[in-house]
Design a protein that fits this description.
four-stranded antiparallel beta sheet, 16 strands, 8% strand, coiled coil, Cytochrome c552, membrane
Length: 832
Amino acid sequence: MSRRQRAAESTTARATAPRRALSRSFWIWLFIGSIVVMAGGALAADWWIGLPEGAQPKFVGRQSCIECHQPQHEQFVGSHHDLAMDRATSETVLGDFNDSELTHHGITSRMFRRDGLYFINTEGPDGKLADFEIKYVFGVTPLQQYMVEFDRPDDLPENEIARLQVLRVSWDTLQKKWFHLDPPDVKEKLDPSDMLHWTGFAQCWNHMCADCHSTNLQKNYDVASGIYHTTFSEIDVSCEACHGPGSLHVQLAKAKSPFWDRKQGFALAKLKGTDNRPQVEMCATCHSRRRGVQPGHQAGCGYYDYFANELLHTNIYHADGQIQDEVYEYGSFIQSKMFHKGIRCSDCHNPHSAKLKYEGNKLCTNCHQHPAAKYDTFAHHHHKEGSAGASCVDCHMPSTTYMEVDPRRDHSIRIPRPDLSVKLGTGNACTGCHLQTDAATVKMRERPDLKSYADWLRASQRGESAVKNELTRIDRWADEHADKWYGSRRKKEPHFAEALHAARTNSVDAQRQLLAMIEKSTQPAIARATAIMEIRSFVNPQESSDTGVTKALVSVLKDSDPSVRAAAVIALQGASDDTIIRALVPVLDDPSRLVRTEAARVLARIPDEQLRGDKLLRLREVLAEFEASASLVNDRAEGHLMLGVLAESRGRLSDAQRHYENAMRVQPGVTGPRGQLAMLLERLIDEAQSQAQQASQQGNKAAMEAALGPIPSLHFEMERLRQDELSLIERDARLVPEEPLMQQQLGFARHTQGWRKEASHALLTAYLLDPRSTNAAYALAIYYRDTGWPEKALEIVADVNKNLSAPAHLRLLEAELKEELKARSSAGPAAK
């Protein structure tokens, strides 16, 4: 090849080289791009697909959590949640079982060991001393309790627990001594048949305690056999009790995918975020006094879909919302400004160790970092540094001792209001503290029944004038000092206590104050719901939904808080059928199960022909939800009573009879089921007599005899039930002779037996025990009217209506009595 040819080829090669390089680069980038697109597509598909639709998480146990969450587990070990319950072993039993003895009410209990097991020799259900094996321990500090298993069949699987009873003989873990845990306000010896006895229903672990001391608790009570088949996934309050069943979370964590699930996130309960309610309500499932609405609650479920918290009722909370009975923390905390400003439990408590995050005042000043130590200084608290008066929690979260040795702080986090104490007789932290050091109360403090401030308040409420006078004196002293320190114009915001106190004392101004409070959305929801429950007696069935109290209740059916809406539904059950239908049928679609099931319960009394179509179908759907709630208390008479009343209102009389009989079977010693069944049998007798009369008029002798046939046996059974019910009511009335409601029940039970003089005595006793009780006055007036003494009935009713804030039914009764007496007067002496 010539030089010229080689030069030409070289030139051509140099010209085509960039094109080859560009072509190579194109294919390389195309390949890379394809990989990226494919990878992106795979990632997108992986992100999009996530967990299968409808995947249900299962409980997998704490061992599945420890692998990735070791620090949290280390904090958890030894916490109150970790030690909430355990089997009785040498590692878990804290009490002295070395032949220790405790004598209480003449019964000497001996705690001992035998063959490596723990026993107590004490009074059993038959009233005789016997040995009982301790199977489980309960709690760790400040007390530990012990449990004995009863009614365990030989064939019960090992993982199932029969009936456990919690001993009242308990171990004080701080003082290292045995003590007897008496029921609140019950200091006398309990009869073995009493439900408060350690072998009675009130001390049954399966129903009273288990749900909040173990994880994934399934009560599993069999009504037919009366046997519990209780199970749990973990014996204590473990990870999944708060975070929810963890199988899907573990599945996602171990997957090769770089994503969590696009819909379920971590596949656990969402306890963080800007809204504090999910976490607070999760804690509230155990840290609240509540009733169940639906079985099957798991972490992350809405509180009001599964529970209804106790409101600020008499003997449970004071009128200003301070704790009185054992109510735990939730009902207090949701009253507080802290809750309404977004504070949650974990802001103060380590959720895994359950300990406070800081000691002393730092717990509060960690957030309240105002200039120049505005609060943690003498200029604010006016007390010596280090004293109780200088402690944030002692002033703003005073404690009340429950279970003899367990002080619990009031979580409403309130400013002390001695001015309200002077006005209403409520408590305040200043008096509670200074009562213990006041020189003038030394003699009274020696009384064994006045150990704590709570005892003083109870004695004052019972009407002990000496106690009341001393409290008033110190309340005034505290109020004067507050004026002196903070100025006479110190912050004294209007408080819902005044409206609730007016309702509790039946003040003539109660209705106006309650209405004003209900309409004030700035008040805590729990207080407004309580006001609604108080005002329900003022609902007039003759009033339209556009007027008065009824109008106010209908308006709050759209409130944002489920507890307020539910209270309004309950209050409206006293309205007319037309109002109930118009107001509550739409509520059947309320997003909260608590609200819509309450609406269904109230609507259940409405005849089907007044609803029809989609309304009737929807009612039946929601009633099925309501009926499911009865399984939560199927080991108690109340669950079966609830189903019986519902069945009776729907016309299913045979179902109602079965439910009442089940109520008697599961709790033979409880009042209520026999009386309810007796009224049902009376209804069956009336229907049979009506059928017989119709058959007689038609000349059908066979049908008449068939209708009359069951009446003698029904009548015999009805009378037997009423006699048995009377015996039970008389027993209860002897136990609590100063309880007006018990005397009312006794009066009506005696009346059904034809004991007019005894019935009148009991009803009059109820009225005299609480002359300001409109219920007692109404019961006595009705009795007088129905037994031929309308003049006496009118005298009682007129006096109440004149001096108290009278409910609608009392005003209606007064009008009816006046009309009756007027008619009798017009008819002349013969009519009388």
